[in-house]
Input
Amino acid sequence: MTARVERFVEPALLLALQAGRSHGYELAERLADVVGVESVDYGNLYRLLRSLEQEGIVSSEWDDESEGHAKRQYQLTENGELLLEAWVDSLRHMDTRLAAFLRRYDERNPA
Amino acid sequence: MTARVERFVEPALLLALQAGRSHGYELAERLADVVGVESVDYGNLYRLLRSLEQEGIVSSEWDDESEGHAKRQYQLTENGELLLEAWVDSLRHMDTRLAAFLRRYDERNPA
DNA sequence: GGAGACATATGTGGTTGACATATATGTGTT
DNA sequence: AACACATATATGTCAACCACATATGTCTCC
Output
C-alpha cells in the first residue's frame, strides 16, 4: 500500500533536465531519490522520453563523441519549460490538499 | 494536466468515516473539498465502498429507519483504522518527497 | 403528476505503470 | 580470449485505476 503521485516521474524528469542536458540512463539514477524509489523503471523512462520528444517537450540527438556507449542526449525545449511550470502549479495545489488532509487527520488523532 | 494522488479518494473516505458512520451519497459530498474536485464520481465511490467491505475495511447495513431514502450506512472496522494509519504514513512520506521537489524547483527558479 | 434531487449501482474504454524481455556495447578480471 | 557485469536503449504485456456513460428507483416540492 504505497501512495503515488500519478506520472510524478514526468515533472521530476523535466526538473532534472532543466539543470542541464543528459541521457536516459543517467537521468534514471538522478531521479530515483526525487521520486522516492530505489530506481526508476528504465523501460518506461525511455518510452516517456520519446513520447515527450514527439510532443515537443524535449529534443534529442545522439552523442557518440564522449567515451563509452553512444547516448541519446535530451534537453528541455521552451515548451518543456512551460510544461514544468504547469506541473509545479499543479503539484503545489496538490501539496495544499495533501497538507489539509494530514492536518485533519492529526487534529482527530493527536499524538 | 492535473497532478493526482492515485486512489486519494480511499484515504479521504476512511478519514471521513473515522468521524462517524455515513452513507455513500453524503460521503461523496463531504469528500469533494478534501479531494479537491467539484464532486467525487458516485459510481466509483459506491464501487470502492463495496470493495472495501469485501476486504473488511468497512462494514455496512441498511438504514431504512431514518426518513427519506433507504441508505446503506457504512462504518470503519478496526482494520479500517489500521489501513487509514498506513495511508497517513505513506502520504506523509509522499508529502516529504513533494516538498523536496518543490524546494528544488524554487531554488533553481527564484521568484 | 411532473421535475429534479436523492441514493445506489453496473458498463466501458483509455491511461498508467510494474514487470518481463530483447539487444548491443563497454569495462574489468582471470 | 573468454567471461561477467555495468552501461545504454528499447518494446511487449497486463492489471489497476479512473473518467464518463448509463440504469433504476424513491422522495420531495410545486
The first strand of chain A starts at residue 22 and ends at 23.
